[in-house]
Write a structure and sequence with these properties.
By secondary structure, this protein is α+β, with helices and mostly antiparallel strands. The protein has one helix at about 1-40, and strands at about 50-65, 70-85, 90-100, 100-105, 115-120, 120-130, 135-145, 150-160, 165, 170-180, 185-195. The chain has 1 helix and 11 strands.
Length: about 200
């Protein structure tokens, strides 16, 4: 009986601890609301931006044609849409399409690895971007990578440097790091052309 009470007490402690973490998270979000409302007052004239680009995704645990583990450089298309909330904050939909079928050593919760086949995967995610100055943009997003061989939840961290061109055009080289949960990680390097409207 003492053991069952101790386990129940530990379980209740974990529930209370989880509630405290979520409470702190929501308090942090609420503290950010004044900054977001202040940011909405300083909106820019062109609010939307569409970018299209080419790049390569680098997969560190890929499999070559002989089945040996090696780095793979896979060509991709990049298509992004961003909506400016202010001069510094943007919300967007970011996507890329890998143009090849490949195999990768996936990782799961333990030490075991399994080979995953990806057939022309398409990544789509919602992103929040922050522009601290004139050119650099930092982004964080969450979404999924979809393929006929399986779908994975993914998180993306990205950096982009935009060169403004005449007529509201922009040239934007970018670096991204993608984490496909319980699958594999990858880096992307791309160069995109964007139009603000």
């Amino acid at each position: 009986m003492f053991l069952s009470l101790s386990i129940r007490g530990d379980y209740l402690f974990l529930i209370k601890f989880q509630r405290m973490r979520w409470t702190r998270f929501f308090c942090l979000i609420l503290l950010c609301f004044p900054f977001l409302s202040e940011a909405q007052e300083e909106t820019t004239s062109p609010r939307s931006r569409v970018t299209v680009g080419l790049g390569h995704t680098l997969v560190g645990k890929g499999k070559d044609v002989n089945g040996k583990q090696s780095w793979l450089a896979l060509p991709m298309w990049v298509i992004d849409y961003d909506y400016s909330l202010s001069n510094k904050w943007m919300l967007g939909v970011h996507s890329d399409i890998l143009l090849e079928t490949f195999e990768v050593d996936g990782f799961f919760l333990g030490e075991e690895t399994n080979t995953i086949e990806r057939k022309h995967p398409v990544a789509a995610l919602g992103a929040v971007s922050f522009r601290p100055g004139q050119h650099a943009v930092y982004s964080l997003g969450m979404g999924g990578e979809f393929s006929s061989s399986g779908n994975y939840l993914m998180t993306r961290v990205g950096f982009e440097y935009g060169f403004e061109l005449p007529g509201e055009w922009e040239l934007a080289p970018a670096l991204t790091y993608d984490i496909k949960w319980k699958a594999y990680d990858s880096f992307s390097i791309s160069l995109a052309v964007g139009k603000k409207f």
